[in-house]
């Protein structure tokens, strides 16, 4: 009798354990999936943004040249790296943000968190995500910038995994985190603006304005996208310059590091130089942020509907 009862309990215990595991990883899975879906839509705009930052002209000129010289497929160059980046970076940052936020709300006895605490959690989640996703980010930048280099200097990576293999083989494992400093700082700034402003805006639209679910998600996503762009572009500009730089004939790099790049940029172009390509950057970042939140909202609704 006892054996029969024990046998009945085992499937229940296994189901409970599986439910516990899913509850733990669910924020990470949902975050990565929403980021990857958004990247598939935004990749062409991101490609144009990178080329503008590399000095190839305005958005119109870059788009025209890409279509004329390389065709429509050029807009999706680096997509594999972009997806890999979302699978690592966005999975880690959105998952850790939600886990840290839930823990903080528990300690706050279920009350909404103050904006400063949300900002701090966003900074922390951004740092975690950037450390995990930095290798894929480096591969993405190099693949997007490859066509701007002289033919003899092009790396000709086939896909993200080939890029990671080549970087490791040619430059060593630690080279995968080249430019990780500005990447982490940029991610911290972006996520502080994106994550904190989203949660704060949801409370504002829902509780203060009485907006419906759709209006709340769209409105909060738009606010989140703007603040993510404004906070992160200066760091993104420096990061891009560091990651794509090549040594000259004497083996000397144009910048010794992020601070040197920032100081030389400030001296040569002033503070507004860091906002080169801001309209396109904002057009790229804001929709990606918006679609990430919208996709995440839809994924959560679907999971709730099917009871997982």
Choose one word for the global shape.
globular
How does the helix and strand content classify structurally? mainly alpha
Q: Please state the average pLDDT score.
A: 85
Instruction: Give the low-confidence spans.
Output: none
Biggest β-sheet strands, sense, barrel = none
Calculate Rg over CA atoms: 22 Å
Distance N to C terminus: 33 Å
Which characteristics define this entry?
mainly alpha; 0% strand; 308 residues; globular
Describe the structure.
This protein has 308 residues and is mostly helical. It has nine helices and no strands. Helix 4 packs across helix 5 and helix 6 (180-208) packs antiparallel against helix 7. The longest helix is centred in the N-terminal third of the chain and has 52 residues, at 2-53. It is globular and about 60 Å long. It starts with a helix and ends with a helix. The model has no long low-confidence stretch (mean pLDDT 85).
List the helices and strands and how they pair.
Layout: H1 2-53, H2 59-69, H3 79-107, H4 115-145, H5 160-171, H6 180-208, H7 213-244, H8 258-269, H9 278-306
Helix pairs in contact: 1-3, 1-9, 3-4, 4-5, 4-6, 6-7, 7-9
